[in-house]
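User: Second chain of the day. Same drill as before.
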Amino acid sequence: MPPRHWLMKTEPSVFSFGDLLARPGRTDCWEGVRNYQARNHMMEMKEGDRVLFYHSNAEPPHVAGLAEVAREAYPDHSAFDPKSKYFDPKSARARPRWHMVDVRALAKLPRPVSLPEMKANLK
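Assistant: Same format as last time:
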């Protein structure tokens, strides 16, 4: 089955594509997602699926780079840590409510690409 393509959004002031590039192996976990629809999409992601790394709170919002899913969904450890800003007291290790994937940077785009520009170039 060919890889699927996903748009994963982040605020660049919180975690940017440059931050991902700077991580060991250019890979990091995508933790802290607390939206059920987004969580369900992450549960569908498979290793090797492609990711458009979207800076949502930039001016203008844009895709900054290309990445891939490096590890399929697994329990989000930050939900169990009372010191984490992503802590969820209703999530338990035996029955986790939240999951995350690992994402690996593939390439920084030569220039930012906006969502309207992508939509205008659909084939």
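The mean pLDDT is 95.

User: Great, on to the next one.
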